[in-house]
Amino acid sequence: MDRIRDGYLSAAGSTADAALDWRLTLGRESDMGFDDRPDRRDLRSLNLRLDWQQSLTDSWFVGLGGTVGAREDGRFGDPNDPPRDRDVRWAWQHLRWTRATGEDELTAQVFHQRRRSRERYTAVYDKVGGVPITAIVDTDASYSSERLDAELQWTRAPRPGLRWALGASARLDRVRARRYFGRRDWLENHVQRLFGTFELEAAPRLTVHGGAMLERDGISGWKLAPRLALNVRLAPWATLRFAASRAHRTPLLVEERAEARETAVTALGDVTVPLILASGGLTAERILSREAGLVVHRRHLTGNLRVFREDLSDVIYSPKRPVTVGTPLGPVSVKAYDFVNAQSATVQGAELEAAWRRGPLLAHLAYAYTVIDGRGPEADELERSAPRHVGSLLAGWRLPRGWTVSGVYYYIGKFQALGFADEIGAVRRLDLRLARRLRRGAARGEVALVAQNLLDTYPETRQRPGKGPNFFDTRVFLEVRVER
Description:
- The protein is mostly beta strands.
- The chain has helices at residues 178-181, 253-257, 379-383, and strands at residues 4-14, 20-31, 41-53, 58-73, 84-101, 104-118, 120-128, 131-140, 143-159, 162-176, 187-203, 206-217, 221-235, 238-249, 259-266, 269-277, 285-298, 301-317, 320-325, 332-337, 340-358, 361-375, 389-398, 403-412, 427-440, 443-452, 458-462, 469-472, 475-483.
- It has a single domain (7-483), classed as TonB-dependent receptor, beta-barrel domain (Maltoporin, Chain A).
- It is built from 3 helices and 29 strands.
């Protein structure tokens, strides 16, 4: 039986002179997950935010927090991947200073985040490399990761109609995971960036946005990512938008340097089997985007229509390579994953969003049409990885005495998620919500009854070939929010 118990408690205040604002938030997220999959989670969090106006020009922001808990993983009835708990914890700190003096603004900030996951389990296999022999593997899938990011940005508006920003940043990403890298020490990737943007009122009805970022990292080297956009005001209520940009995705450390092996204990001796052997030498994935759109604001109606084309190249693909390993019964051939730049794709489509408000009534429509043309190995999987049609329709009505009623209908076309063998059919879903706002003295809040998926049960995801889907059934729950 599904059960979700999420709760949050927040306290906030200010000093007598209103120079310092603070907010402390405690939270718990508890979810039993799907009935047929071990995906329970129980997480507790603590977050603190401080905003200090030091002077007329200088202000500070301090944020810090952390989360601890457990997530369940694995599959029922699978000795190769048994159910187990994964203990997780992460912490973050953020410090930002801003100096604003009229037309100039200078910002410096530092962000740090650290994650840790502890996961150990024992798996049992009935064959190794096709050889029928019982093997026991004690797996330690624990890992730690850390990110440290520092940034400096200068923003200036030298005259009406012109605004620009210049900045630089440096980032350290590092990870430690013996199972995936075959070593106990930290692996690091250093990233440096220079960036600039501008906004220019080139004519009474034309606004130009532009910018570029020059980036260097320890895996794929130097990259330049420019962007240019034009806004043409056809009327006070209608604007045409045109934009083009080029961006990159830096390969992950695991894609560039993974050397994952496991040792299987058998009655005839130990066997070391490779799981991932990254050949290295990857380049960054590239994406070239172009789009055109129309934005409309007319009294009770707002709308946004966008057509786009995205060309992806050097997409990282993970083929299986044959590897020969020695066993007590002689050499056998197994397959290990590798990572190579081998795929490309063109993504084209259109998106429509419209909202209508009048008095107590609200309606919102969203629709997206996407077509993918994949190239390279397993290109057909790329083409099926996103639904062709996605849409939603929301309607809301604000009633007297603080009552509101709303409903939303979703449609998601069929698709096949990357890495999963089974196609998920089209999904139709209806959610309803009845709520009432409450106020008594200085306290205010809201009580809401929510019903999700009042139509047919549908498969949320597929676990693995032959393992069946995770079904999303009807859910009904109560939300309570109190502020004082």
